[in-house]
Structure formats: C-alpha cells, structure tokens
Amino acid sequence: MNPDILDSSAWLECLEDGPNTIHFGPILLKLPDLIVPSIVLTEVRKVTLKQRTVAKADEVTQSMLSGIVIPIDEAIAIAAADLFIKHKLPLADSLIYAVTLAHNATLWTQDDDFEGLPNVRYFPKIKL
Q1: Which residues share a beta bridge with 4?
Q2: What is the per-residue pLDDT for 25?
Q3: Which tens digits make up the pLDDT trace of 65-119?
Q4: Which of 40, 46, 62, 105 could covalently link to 3 via disulfide, CB atoms 3.0 to 4.6 Å apart?
Q5: Among 111, 96, 93, which residue's Cα sits nearest to residue 9?
Q6: CA distances, 47 to each of 42, 54, 56, 74, 92 (Å)
Q7: Taking 90 as the threshold, does the pLDDT of residue 1 lie above it?
C-alpha cells in the first residue's frame, strides 16, 4: 500500500471542516504514518498564523510534526525543478509533487494544478 500525502489545501480544508473534508479526513487519521513535505508544513503554518492564533498554529504544527516530515534535500530540489518545467507547476507544488513521486505516495489535493497527474487524488474545491 502506497503512503499518503495531504497537500496544503487539503490540510487547510480539514482545519476549516470544509466540504472536501469527507475525502481528506480519513487520510488525516493516518497520522503518524502520513508523509508531510516540509513545504506543506511551511504553507499551512503561514496560513494558520494569518487566519488564527499563534496557539492554533502551534497546535496544527504539532499535529503535522507527528507525521513523517520530509525535508527538501538535493534530490527533491532537483526533481522539483524538472517537475516545475515539465508540468508548469508553481514552485511549492513542484516540491510537494517531487516528494510524492520520490516516495511513490498518493497526493490528496483540491489544488487544480495537480489535476490529471499520476499519483494524485484530486477533488475540486467546493465553493460555499
């Protein structure tokens, strides 16, 4: 069974208890076996600090740190550059996708930049 990754949009959707939590919530329950790319940690903490309290950001960060945090090493950085060019992904997304492919994981997302890519489970964002 392949490991799973929630991208930043999926973590934030669960934090907000948004409509796509139905898809992402069961994956979130796989902590501590969930892979957490370090760039996702940065993105989620940044948004949480902007929208909520430091205490909430610390709580979310601690939850994320209970997963398998994958740093940006040389191999991930090089692969991300290639994916950036090949798929025209934004830089952060190319890093997330590089981690996904390096670990033969499944990426769960509602970010349409990933739609149609291998190893991705994409669910369109539902506007309320």
Answers
A1: 106
A2: 97
A3: 999 999 999 999 999 999 999 999 999 999 999 999 999 999 999 999 999 999 9
A4: 105
A5: 111
A6: 9, 11, 11, 27, 14
A7: no
Sketch the domain layout of the chain as residue ranges: 4-121
Per the listing, tokens 């492919």 go with 101
Cα–Cα distance, 6 to 28 (Å, whole number): 8
The pLDDT value given to residue 20: 97
Whether the pLDDT of residue 47 is over 80: the answer is yes
Distance separating alpha carbons of residues 67 and 116, to the nearest angstrom: 26
Three-class HEC string of the chain: CCCEEECHHHHHHHHCCCCCHHHHHHHHCCCCCCEEEHHHHHHHHHHHHHHCCHHHHHHHHHHHHCCEEECCCHHHHHHHHHHHHHHCCCHHHHHHHHHHHHCCCEEEECCHHHCCCCCEEECCCCCC
Does the domain at 4-121 match CATH 3.40.50.1010? Answer given as: yes
